[in-house]
Design a protein that fits this description.
285 residues; mainly alpha; globular
Amino acid sequence: MSEIIIGLFAFAVGACVGSFLNVCISRWPLELSVVSPPSRCPRCERPIRWNENIPVLGWLLLRGRCRGCELPISMQYPAVELAVGVGWLAVVYALGPTFTALRVAVFGTVMLGIAITDARHYLIPDGFTVFGLLWVIVTSVLAALWGDPGTFAGPWNAILGMCVGAGAIAIAGWLGEVVMRREAMGFGDVTLMAVVGAAVGPGRALLVVFLGAFLGAVTFMLFVLPITRLRGGTRNGPQLELPIGASVAVAPEVPFGVFLAPAAVVTLLWGDTLIAWYLARFATL
């Protein structure tokens, strides 16, 4: 019974955190405060009552529509609340009600907010990265004092990882800019990798960059490139007007933070296992 109560509590807290995450996702890209004004409809500006602001249930009770303007409310709101709630529940189920579980849950929530915001707005707000870096550094010190580092890097490795993560992605961006002759990496990716590097340490920070690049390349090849070719003109597809002399459609930019964020969570939880597997395979060659 106690495990069920703990699980329900973890889900409820996670869903509430997800509700606040929605506010951050919506307001930080517009450089608005996440504290004031209180929650309201972004179109008719009708204040949202407390009973309408219950995570997931509020959206269901409103039937996905604002009671003021009656326009649809984005599915993002209940989806994020549900995802964070389930994520917190899964972490507590896997790691127990521990300090490490709390660190992982908060870190994963920050990464989700970064991925969604980067996908929607092609930017990573400083609010996510500043909070994330402070959270990782401060909790690494507390974990070291309590003797419970978990899967996170210790305080010294966190500082080294911050430098390695930011430096690695900055160098990758510079090389990409030299090759493609245009900006290949935004500063938000650098600050993101500073947070991630502080969480996983210097060795695993490089694994995050590799996994992020791998996920990005697979997504580009399987989804982005075919859609771009279709829009650019295929035998049976619609034609897109191109400049004279152009024969290949220009592929759209892909926000790298969308792939670095999940790669960071995977590396934090299973990075050591992946590295050990890779070294074992390399040793047999």
